[in-house]
Amino acid sequence: MASCSQILVHFASFLILLSLQLHNLVVGVSSATLSITTDTEALISIKSQLSNDTLNTLSSWNHNSSPCNWTGVLCDRPGQRVTGLDLAGFGLSGQLSPYIGNLSSLQSLELQNNQLTGLIPDQIGNLFSLRVLNMSSNMFEGKLPSNISHLNDLQLLDLSSNKLLSKIPDDISTLKKLEVLKLGRNSLYGEIPASLGNISSLKNISFGTNFLTGWIPSDLGRLHDLIELDLLLNNLNGTIPAAIYNLSSLVNFALASNSLWGEIPQDIGHKLPKLIVFNICFNKFTGRIPGSLHNLTNIRVIRMASNHLEGTVPPGLGNLPFLTMYNIGYNRIVSSGVGGLDFIISLTNSTHLNFLAIDGNMLEGVIPETIGNLSKDLSKLYMGENRFNGSIPSSIGRLSGLRLLNLSYNSIFGEIPQELGQLEELQELSLAGNKISGGIPNIIGNNLLKLNLIDLSRNNLVGTIPASFGNLQNLIYMDLSSNKLNDSIPREILNLPALSNVLNLSTNFLSGLIPQVGRLSSVASIDFSGNQLNGSIPSSFSNCLSLEKLFLARNQLSGPIPKALGDVRGLETLDLSSNQLSGTIPIELQNLQVLKLLNLSYNDLEGAIPSGGVFGNLSAVHLEGNINLCLHSPCKTHGQGRTNVRLYVIIAIVVTMILCLTIGLLVYIKNKKVKVATTVSEELKPQAPMISYDELQYGWGEKPSAAGDVYSFGIVLLELFTGKSPTDECFTGGLSIRKWVQSGLKEKKVQVIEPQLLSLIFHDYPSEGPNVKMHCVDAIVGVGISCTEDKPDERIGIRDVVRQLKAARDSLLNQSDESPSRDTKSY
């Protein structure tokens, strides 16, 4: 037994010794695992997950040398472990390997400005020594790593400019050493965690350009070392917590593009004395501009545009020597008294001013000549949509750095000063919507060669379009519409290669032929409508391969429609109405598969109408006013057309007179208590449906009466001249045939008249004098409206109906007898 017990003791001792040796062996293996060798293997694995075409910069990453000598790798002093990995801006693509978690001594991981994709590996949470984690400006997606809160030594976390779709986790507040937290320009949603207020070390919070909602937590007011608070471009609402205004260390305060409201404290400049950037644009703030902001002598950016601020611009702008941007546009700011615009003069002390926007307010008065003393660094000047008057100061020509000048939609008069030609850096010039007169200076086309936008529309400019505009080879957008410009279109502007947006010369007095279109292959919209252009439409419009909209309406263009227009496959709108175009409609227009609106009305087109493409959608095609087009019946000669107009109207009047007599008889019979059922003969108007008009009036519980008969007669008239049944399916939601006709006449929309009748009427001399036929039709329709008043006692009497219809008939017949020469003038 003793020997047995001794054996057991020895065996137990052996097991203990064995376990200790095994323990030492395991520790030794673990220690060996966490070595430069395993770091090497981890880095090789990371490289293997990257795309081959981006690995040139990592050519040194191979087994032939220590990783401490590899590009972007940093080791500790003994060279035992990798402590830093900086691959920023290497153009890397591919995915980040989970083996990144084996670099357990890593203190800094910088992968920003690459094209890495996929999920951020959860193994990032194993890098317990990490202090800097910057993976910004990549294409990472998915959620924030769930165990990122384990990185207790983390001081900087920058995951901005990725495609992360996640909430901000509440336990991120466990990162007690965090100083910089940048998660902007992702797709983060949910509310801002109030627990962030527990990270007292935070100096930078940047959550801009996400989908965050809710209120700004007042707990952030405990972050007394906070330097930057960037929450712009989210969906935040509510007011700014008062505690935020106690963060006296704030330098960058950016809350733009949310739905925040309330007033900004007038003493904000005293509470936040270190402010350099103040940006609250595009919110719903009210009240006045805080004057204390103008006492912050170091401030550089003040942006308060697109709110509901009111009052005047407070004094003190002259105290801001380092100001680079001042934007108070689109508020309700006013100027009062003689010195109401003195703040512009004060800004001359801001010698670094680069951006000034005071547009979209209610400022008025004459723009001071001293505006030319503003900073030579000023590149953008927005003063449009105010109430400025007077002329454009010639001193603006001294602002040699100006790239954008917008004075549009004021009440400025006088001529465009020649001095604007000195702004050789100018790229955008907008003077639209004023009362500017005189000609367009040639110097604009000779000197402003960097212009890419010019908008002089809605003024009183006269003279010719300068041929020197052909020098504007960078021009993308040109709008000279709604002026009094005359003479021909310079061929030079139809050869501007960069013109890719709009060329609008409409509503002027331009005449002559349209020049051949040259290098306008990129232009999207051309509008020459409302001029006096003549001749044929150039087939060279087919060179405009990117053209989406072409407006040539209301000119004197003649000849056929070019077949080549069918080659402009991107065309969405084509308006050639109210010209003198002749011939048939080119079948090639069927090829315009994206065409949404085709207006060929009021020309002299003839023949068959194509049936394919846009022509299959009647609501998208306007062909009225072309008498010789085969619309709903075989083509007629011109002589037949004129005869049909007269016969159509006269027969209609005869029919209505018969109906008057019928109604008179009905009234007589009803007064004798005799019930008579009346119907309208289908032979009077074959296309009109048979309906019981008495039901329209009496179906509402009205007793039979003379007023009721008048109502029914009025409905007949409206149906006869509009071609629509009162029970048409389009009359829903309270809309009746009477309301539809009355609305159309008030808004001068002749479309309420039956299309074939309208086409016949307007074919004969559409532009001369009062159209007697149309007056006749208007009078008859007016009788129909008077007969269908809602209240019976407001309806016209039957005798007045007869009198007015006779007057309309006599007017038409008298005009026809007095003008025999006009019947054959065109034939």
Automatic annotation (TrEMBL):
UniProt-recorded name of the protein: non-specific serine/threonine protein kinase
Question: Which InterPro entries does its entry note?
Answer: Kinase-like_dom_sf (IPR011009), Leu-rich_rpt (IPR001611), Leu-rich_rpt_typical-subtyp (IPR003591), LRR_dom_sf (IPR032675), LRR_N_plant-typ (IPR013210), LRR_R13L4/SHOC2-like (IPR055414), Plant_RL_S/T_kinase (IPR051716)
Q: What SMART domains does the annotation carry?
A: LRR_TYP
Gene3D superfamilies (UniProt xref): Ribonuclease Inhibitor, Transferase(Phosphotransferase) domain 1
Q: Which domain of life is it from?
A: Eukaryota
Membrane topology per record: Single-pass type I membrane protein
One Pfam family from the UniProt entry?
A: LRR_8
Q: What does UniProt give as GO cellular component?
A: membrane
- Keyword Transferase found: yes
Chief localisation class:
membrane
Q: Give the reactions, separated by semicolons, that this protein catalyses.
A: L-threonyl-[protein] + ATP = O-phospho-L-threonyl-[protein] + ADP + H(+); L-seryl-[protein] + ATP = O-phospho-L-seryl-[protein] + ADP + H(+)
Signal peptide start and end residues: 1-28
**Keywords, sorted A to Z:** ATP-binding, Glycoprotein, Kinase, Leucine-rich repeat, Membrane, Nucleotide-binding, Receptor, Repeat, Serine/threonine-protein kinase, Signal, Transferase, Transmembrane, Transmembrane helix
Its EC number is 2.7.11.1
Localization per Swiss-Prot or TrEMBL: Membrane
Top EC class of this enzyme = transferase
Using the record's annotation, list all stretches that form the Leucine-rich repeat-containing N-terminal plant-type domain: 38-76
Molecular function terms from GO? ATP binding; protein serine/threonine kinase activity
Where exactly are the transmembrane stretches of this chain?
A: 647-669
Task: Show where the Disease resistance R13L4/SHOC-2-like LRR domain sits.
Answer: 93-236
